Amino acid sequence: MEQFLMNNCKIANELRKYRDLTGCVNRVSLSGDPNNYAEYIITRELSYLDMVTANAVYSLWRSGEGADGFRAETVGQVMAGSMERRLRPEKQAELEERLRRLAGTELYILADHDQQAGQPVYEGAFLPLTWEEGGRRFRFRPNQQPPLYQYAQERNQLLRIPFSRLRDDGARGQTRLNNNDRTLLLRHYLLQELEILLYPGNQVEEREIRLLRRDETGAEYGLLWRLGLSEGESSPAEARRVQQTLEQLLDNLRIIGYVTKEQYEPLPPEKGYGIRLISGNKQEKKRNKKQKN
Asked: Could you tell me if 82 and 59 are in contact, meaning their C-beta atoms sit under 8 angstroms apart?
């Protein structure tokens, strides 16, 4: 495989970010025009890990691999960017159950007010899969597409990440990190944020990724909560450990020339720990200002 595809449409980002979206019609605004919006109905709550899994399955489908069937371990390999990765039996069982659950989840997108959509309705199984051999071998249902990905593809909202960027390469000087679920989710989140921030037409100069964050009621909504990484209430010690992992991931991306040292810096405890990402646009403005002075 050469590319990993990430769904970057607004509906996908809401499903990654929020909870309790089931049982109602959800609306996403698509521009400053109040008449430009889409609505959707999801039958099951999804986690960030569910969404990364769905991205991997769609990447596998679009690559043409897995056309004759695939096992959960193949999906785990795609998520990690390494077809040599091996999953423990309990991890394979977890992933098999997740795939069956996503295949049993229904999504309906009402796009008749979406000014960029190619059709008024997208609907069907979140992942159109069947399985055999006791639920261990999966197949793509013929002539069906996952509705969220068909919608994103028609709106040109799929991010294409080089497959090799999902893993660490010691031969290139990168530090090999333990690719457990925590590191994997942080890696995927970071790559998506960077792809958006570093896009040439992007006007946003920086983005703060806060690990610990609470609203006015005291409820958590920082990155630890969003990714499902904290057990109970998140702690500063836990946030500091995750911050170190984020810094190491960024250092590895710097080594291969994807980012520069000036494009990221850690956030202090009073900000809730995390990382500040800085676009090339802001760095260019700083350089121009120095030259003028």
From this structure: no
Q: DSSP labels for the chain?
A: --EEEEE-SHHHHHHHH-S--TTS-EEEE-SS-TT-EEEEEESS---HHHHHHHHHHHHHHHHTTTTT-EEHHHHHHHHHT-TT----HHHHHHHHHHHHHHHT-EEEEE-TT-TT-SSSEEEEESS-EEEETTTTEEEEPTT---HHHHHHHHTT-EEEEEGGGGS--GGGTPPPPP--HHHHHHHHHHHHHHHHHTSTT----EEEEESS-B-TTS-B-SHHHHTT--SSS--HHHHHHHHHHHHHHHHHHHHTTSS-GGGEEEPPGGGTSEEEEE-HHHHHHHHHHHHH-
Kindly report, residue by residue over 65-104, the tens digit of the pLDDT: 888 899 999 999 999 999 999 999 999 999 999 999 999 9
Distance CA 16, CA 8 (A): 10
Below-70 pLDDT ranges, the chain: 231-232, 281-293
* Tens-place pLDDT, residues 29-54: 999 999 999 999 999 999 999 999 99
pTM over cut 0.90 = yes
Report yes or no: 12 and 148 within 8 Å, Cβ to Cβ.
Answer: yes
